[in-house]
Specification:
Blueprint: E1 9-14, E2 18-27, E3 34-38, H1 49-55, E4 60-64, E5 76-77, H2 84-89, H3 94-107, E6 114-119, H4 121-130, E7 138-144, H5 153-160, H6 162-166, H7 170-182, H8 191-198, H9 209-220, H10 225-228, H11 234-237, E8 240-245, H12 255-263, E9 267-271, H13 278-281, H14 283-296
Helix pairs in contact: 1-14, 3-4, 5-9, 7-9
Length: 302
Protein backbone atom coordinates (compact mmCIF):
# COMPACT_ATOMS: atom_id res chain seq x y z
CA UNK A 1 0.00 0.00 0.00
CA UNK A 2 1.43 3.38 -1.01
CA UNK A 3 1.71 6.14 1.60
CA UNK A 4 1.51 9.90 1.30
CA UNK A 5 4.87 10.23 3.06
CA UNK A 6 8.05 8.23 3.52
CA UNK A 7 10.39 8.04 6.50
CA UNK A 8 13.29 9.62 4.64
CA UNK A 9 15.43 10.63 7.64
CA UNK A 10 17.55 8.45 9.93
CA UNK A 11 18.56 9.33 13.47
CA UNK A 12 21.30 7.25 15.09
CA UNK A 13 21.42 7.06 18.87
CA UNK A 14 24.17 5.27 20.77
CA UNK A 15 24.27 4.37 24.45
CA UNK A 16 26.85 2.41 26.38
CA UNK A 17 24.98 -0.79 25.55
CA UNK A 18 22.98 -0.28 22.33
CA UNK A 19 22.85 1.49 18.99
CA UNK A 20 19.52 2.58 17.50
CA UNK A 21 18.68 3.64 13.96
CA UNK A 22 15.31 5.43 13.91
CA UNK A 23 13.62 6.24 10.61
CA UNK A 24 11.52 9.41 10.74
CA UNK A 25 10.03 12.23 8.71
CA UNK A 26 8.23 15.55 9.04
CA UNK A 27 5.24 16.76 7.02
CA UNK A 28 3.25 20.00 7.04
CA UNK A 29 4.37 23.60 7.46
CA UNK A 30 7.54 24.14 9.48
CA UNK A 31 6.02 27.27 11.04
CA UNK A 32 3.01 25.40 12.43
CA UNK A 33 2.80 23.93 15.96
CA UNK A 34 4.73 20.66 16.26
CA UNK A 35 2.78 17.43 16.62
CA UNK A 36 4.43 14.05 17.20
CA UNK A 37 2.49 10.86 16.48
CA UNK A 38 3.82 7.77 18.30
CA UNK A 39 2.81 4.22 17.39
CA UNK A 40 2.56 1.10 19.55
CA UNK A 41 2.92 -2.68 19.06
CA UNK A 42 2.87 -4.39 16.58
CA UNK A 43 2.28 -1.29 14.49
CA UNK A 44 4.38 1.35 12.76
CA UNK A 45 4.01 5.01 11.86
CA UNK A 46 1.86 3.86 8.92
CA UNK A 47 -1.19 3.66 11.23
CA UNK A 48 -1.13 7.47 11.41
CA UNK A 49 -1.38 8.11 7.66
CA UNK A 50 -4.99 9.29 7.66
CA UNK A 51 -4.67 11.44 10.78
CA UNK A 52 -1.33 12.90 9.72
CA UNK A 53 -2.64 13.82 6.28
CA UNK A 54 -5.76 15.42 7.76
CA UNK A 55 -3.85 17.52 10.29
CA UNK A 56 -0.83 18.40 8.14
CA UNK A 57 -2.42 21.67 6.94
CA UNK A 58 -2.43 23.00 10.51
CA UNK A 59 0.52 21.27 12.20
CA UNK A 60 4.14 20.38 11.62
CA UNK A 61 3.88 16.62 12.06
CA UNK A 62 6.70 14.31 13.09
CA UNK A 63 6.39 10.56 12.55
CA UNK A 64 8.85 7.76 13.28
CA UNK A 65 9.16 4.01 13.54
CA UNK A 66 10.48 2.72 16.86
CA UNK A 67 13.67 0.67 16.55
CA UNK A 68 12.62 -2.84 15.51
CA UNK A 69 9.31 -1.69 13.98
CA UNK A 70 8.23 -0.76 10.48
CA UNK A 71 11.39 0.11 8.56
CA UNK A 72 13.61 0.96 11.55
CA UNK A 73 16.09 -1.88 12.12
CA UNK A 74 16.17 -3.62 15.51
CA UNK A 75 18.46 -2.19 18.20
CA UNK A 76 22.04 -3.45 17.99
CA UNK A 77 23.64 -4.57 21.24
CA UNK A 78 27.15 -3.15 21.62
CA UNK A 79 28.23 -5.07 24.70
CA UNK A 80 27.24 -8.37 26.24
CA UNK A 81 26.15 -8.74 29.84
CA UNK A 82 24.87 -11.54 32.01
CA UNK A 83 21.33 -10.18 31.83
CA UNK A 84 21.40 -8.97 28.21
CA UNK A 85 18.35 -11.03 27.22
CA UNK A 86 16.26 -9.31 29.89
CA UNK A 87 17.68 -5.90 29.00
CA UNK A 88 17.03 -6.42 25.29
CA UNK A 89 13.47 -7.53 26.00
CA UNK A 90 12.80 -4.08 27.54
CA UNK A 91 9.50 -5.09 29.09
CA UNK A 92 9.17 -1.76 30.90
CA UNK A 93 9.97 0.17 27.67
CA UNK A 94 12.76 2.09 29.39
CA UNK A 95 15.10 1.72 26.40
CA UNK A 96 12.40 2.58 23.88
CA UNK A 97 11.52 5.74 25.79
CA UNK A 98 15.20 6.65 26.09
CA UNK A 99 15.64 6.37 22.31
CA UNK A 100 12.51 8.46 21.74
CA UNK A 101 13.74 11.12 24.17
CA UNK A 102 17.02 11.31 22.25
CA UNK A 103 15.08 11.77 19.00
CA UNK A 104 13.00 14.58 20.53
CA UNK A 105 16.22 16.22 21.65
CA UNK A 106 17.68 15.83 18.17
CA UNK A 107 14.72 17.70 16.67
CA UNK A 108 15.47 20.66 18.96
CA UNK A 109 11.96 22.05 18.54
CA UNK A 110 11.39 25.75 19.18
CA UNK A 111 8.48 25.03 21.53
CA UNK A 112 7.04 21.95 23.26
CA UNK A 113 5.24 19.64 20.83
CA UNK A 114 1.83 18.05 21.09
CA UNK A 115 1.97 14.26 21.33
CA UNK A 116 -0.64 11.73 20.23
CA UNK A 117 0.18 8.18 21.35
CA UNK A 118 -1.49 4.83 20.71
CA UNK A 119 -1.21 1.45 22.44
CA UNK A 120 2.05 1.01 24.40
CA UNK A 121 3.28 4.35 23.07
CA UNK A 122 1.20 5.66 25.96
CA UNK A 123 3.78 4.22 28.35
CA UNK A 124 6.59 5.63 26.20
CA UNK A 125 5.06 9.12 26.21
CA UNK A 126 4.52 9.05 29.97
CA UNK A 127 8.15 8.05 30.43
CA UNK A 128 9.11 11.02 28.24
CA UNK A 129 7.32 13.26 30.74
CA UNK A 130 8.29 11.57 34.00
CA UNK A 131 11.71 10.02 33.30
CA UNK A 132 13.16 12.43 30.75
CA UNK A 133 11.44 15.72 31.61
CA UNK A 134 10.37 16.26 28.00
CA UNK A 135 7.99 19.23 27.94
CA UNK A 136 4.77 18.73 25.96
CA UNK A 137 2.11 21.19 24.83
CA UNK A 138 -0.50 18.47 25.26
CA UNK A 139 -0.83 14.70 25.40
CA UNK A 140 -3.59 12.68 23.72
CA UNK A 141 -3.67 8.97 24.61
CA UNK A 142 -5.57 6.59 22.33
CA UNK A 143 -6.36 3.11 23.73
CA UNK A 144 -3.05 3.03 25.57
CA UNK A 145 -1.22 0.29 27.44
CA UNK A 146 -0.41 2.10 30.68
CA UNK A 147 -2.20 0.49 33.62
CA UNK A 148 -1.38 -2.99 34.88
CA UNK A 149 -2.06 -5.84 35.00
CA UNK A 150 -0.86 -6.18 31.42
CA UNK A 151 -1.13 -8.78 28.74
CA UNK A 152 -3.50 -11.02 26.83
CA UNK A 153 -3.72 -14.82 27.13
CA UNK A 154 -2.09 -14.92 23.67
CA UNK A 155 1.02 -13.19 25.05
CA UNK A 156 1.21 -15.59 27.98
CA UNK A 157 0.89 -18.61 25.72
CA UNK A 158 3.79 -17.52 23.53
CA UNK A 159 5.98 -16.37 26.45
CA UNK A 160 5.62 -19.70 28.24
CA UNK A 161 6.24 -21.71 25.07
CA UNK A 162 8.68 -19.49 23.19
CA UNK A 163 10.86 -22.34 21.88
CA UNK A 164 7.80 -24.14 20.55
CA UNK A 165 6.51 -21.07 18.71
CA UNK A 166 9.97 -20.30 17.28
CA UNK A 167 9.98 -23.79 15.78
CA UNK A 168 6.69 -23.24 13.96
CA UNK A 169 7.05 -22.76 10.18
CA UNK A 170 6.97 -19.09 9.20
CA UNK A 171 3.81 -19.48 7.12
CA UNK A 172 1.99 -20.67 10.24
CA UNK A 173 3.35 -17.74 12.26
CA UNK A 174 1.95 -15.49 9.53
CA UNK A 175 -1.44 -17.08 10.15
CA UNK A 176 -1.17 -16.24 13.87
CA UNK A 177 -0.07 -12.70 13.03
CA UNK A 178 -2.98 -12.09 10.68
CA UNK A 179 -5.51 -13.55 13.10
CA UNK A 180 -4.11 -11.36 15.89
CA UNK A 181 -4.22 -8.15 13.83
CA UNK A 182 -7.77 -8.85 12.67
CA UNK A 183 -8.97 -8.67 16.29
CA UNK A 184 -7.71 -5.07 16.60
CA UNK A 185 -10.62 -3.58 14.65
CA UNK A 186 -14.39 -3.78 14.91
CA UNK A 187 -14.78 -3.71 11.15
CA UNK A 188 -12.83 -6.04 8.82
CA UNK A 189 -9.65 -4.40 7.61
CA UNK A 190 -9.27 -3.91 3.85
CA UNK A 191 -6.86 -6.51 2.49
CA UNK A 192 -4.25 -3.94 1.44
CA UNK A 193 -4.16 -2.43 4.93
CA UNK A 194 -3.94 -5.85 6.59
CA UNK A 195 -1.06 -6.74 4.27
CA UNK A 196 0.68 -3.45 5.07
CA UNK A 197 0.38 -3.97 8.84
CA UNK A 198 1.67 -7.55 8.55
CA UNK A 199 4.49 -6.86 6.09
CA UNK A 200 7.32 -6.00 8.55
CA UNK A 201 6.73 -9.22 10.51
CA UNK A 202 6.66 -11.69 7.62
CA UNK A 203 9.56 -14.05 6.94
CA UNK A 204 10.90 -11.71 4.24
CA UNK A 205 9.94 -8.51 6.08
CA UNK A 206 12.18 -5.92 7.71
CA UNK A 207 11.71 -7.43 11.19
CA UNK A 208 10.75 -11.05 10.53
CA UNK A 209 8.44 -13.52 12.20
CA UNK A 210 10.81 -14.31 15.07
CA UNK A 211 10.85 -10.63 16.05
CA UNK A 212 7.03 -10.59 16.06
CA UNK A 213 7.02 -13.49 18.53
CA UNK A 214 9.60 -11.68 20.66
CA UNK A 215 7.33 -8.62 20.81
CA UNK A 216 4.53 -10.84 22.13
CA UNK A 217 6.91 -12.11 24.82
CA UNK A 218 7.82 -8.53 25.68
CA UNK A 219 4.14 -7.63 25.99
CA UNK A 220 3.69 -10.46 28.47
CA UNK A 221 6.56 -9.03 30.53
CA UNK A 222 5.27 -5.44 30.53
CA UNK A 223 5.97 -3.72 33.85
CA UNK A 224 5.17 -0.17 34.92
CA UNK A 225 4.64 -0.81 38.63
CA UNK A 226 7.27 1.67 39.80
CA UNK A 227 6.23 4.35 37.34
CA UNK A 228 2.53 4.02 38.24
CA UNK A 229 3.26 5.67 41.59
CA UNK A 230 4.06 8.85 39.64
CA UNK A 231 1.08 8.81 37.28
CA UNK A 232 -0.83 11.48 39.21
CA UNK A 233 1.81 14.00 38.09
CA UNK A 234 1.05 13.56 34.38
CA UNK A 235 -1.98 15.85 34.20
CA UNK A 236 -0.06 18.61 35.93
CA UNK A 237 2.88 18.32 33.55
CA UNK A 238 0.79 18.28 30.37
CA UNK A 239 -2.90 18.69 29.53
CA UNK A 240 -4.06 15.13 28.86
CA UNK A 241 -6.97 13.65 26.93
CA UNK A 242 -7.94 9.99 26.62
CA UNK A 243 -9.69 8.46 23.60
CA UNK A 244 -10.96 4.88 23.51
CA UNK A 245 -12.89 2.66 21.12
CA UNK A 246 -16.17 1.45 22.61
CA UNK A 247 -15.58 -2.06 21.25
CA UNK A 248 -11.86 -2.47 21.97
CA UNK A 249 -11.27 -6.22 22.24
CA UNK A 250 -7.69 -5.80 23.47
CA UNK A 251 -8.19 -3.21 26.19
CA UNK A 252 -11.71 -2.98 27.69
CA UNK A 253 -13.25 0.47 27.45
CA UNK A 254 -13.65 0.59 31.25
CA UNK A 255 -9.91 1.24 31.49
CA UNK A 256 -10.42 4.73 30.05
CA UNK A 257 -12.12 6.17 33.14
CA UNK A 258 -9.63 4.46 35.47
CA UNK A 259 -6.82 6.00 33.48
CA UNK A 260 -8.40 9.46 33.59
CA UNK A 261 -8.39 9.30 37.38
CA UNK A 262 -4.86 7.87 37.59
CA UNK A 263 -3.34 10.51 35.31
CA UNK A 264 -5.50 13.46 36.36
CA UNK A 265 -6.52 13.77 32.73
CA UNK A 266 -8.87 16.53 31.57
CA UNK A 267 -11.20 14.51 29.38
CA UNK A 268 -12.24 11.08 28.15
CA UNK A 269 -13.96 10.46 24.83
CA UNK A 270 -15.40 7.09 23.86
CA UNK A 271 -15.79 6.52 20.12
CA UNK A 272 -18.62 4.18 19.19
CA UNK A 273 -18.26 1.37 16.68
CA UNK A 274 -14.49 1.35 17.09
CA UNK A 275 -12.05 -1.28 18.29
CA UNK A 276 -8.41 -0.95 19.34
CA UNK A 277 -7.32 0.51 16.00
CA UNK A 278 -9.60 3.53 16.10
CA UNK A 279 -7.46 4.92 13.28
CA UNK A 280 -9.10 2.48 10.85
CA UNK A 281 -12.52 1.90 12.39
CA UNK A 282 -13.44 5.58 12.77
CA UNK A 283 -10.79 7.77 11.09
CA UNK A 284 -13.05 10.81 10.65
CA UNK A 285 -14.32 10.78 14.23
CA UNK A 286 -10.80 10.32 15.53
CA UNK A 287 -9.50 13.21 13.43
CA UNK A 288 -12.31 15.42 14.71
CA UNK A 289 -11.65 14.60 18.37
CA UNK A 290 -7.88 15.00 18.06
CA UNK A 291 -8.26 18.18 16.02
CA UNK A 292 -10.58 19.80 18.56
CA UNK A 293 -8.23 18.83 21.38
CA UNK A 294 -5.16 20.23 19.65
CA UNK A 295 -6.94 23.45 18.71
CA UNK A 296 -7.93 24.06 22.31
CA UNK A 297 -4.30 23.70 23.42
CA UNK A 298 -2.47 25.42 20.56
CA UNK A 299 -1.47 29.02 21.14
CA UNK A 300 -0.35 29.83 17.62
CA UNK A 301 -1.87 27.84 14.80
CA UNK A 302 -0.72 29.02 11.38
Amino acid sequence: MAHGYSLDQTFIHKTTSHEYHIRWTRIGKTTSPALVLIHGTPWSSAVWENLATTLSTRYSIYLYDHPGFGISPPPRRLVDAADHDKVDLDGSLVLRAEASAALFNHWNLASPPHVVAHDNAGLVSIRLLLDHSVKLASLCLIAVVVLGPFGLPFFKLIAENEDVFNAIPTNMVEGLLRAYIKTATRKPLPKDIEDMLCAPWLADGMQGSEKFLKEMVQAHNRDASILENEYARVGGLSPTKIIWGQDDAWLPVEIAQKLKKALNAEDVVIIEEAGHLVQYDQPSKLALEVGLWLSSHSKNEK
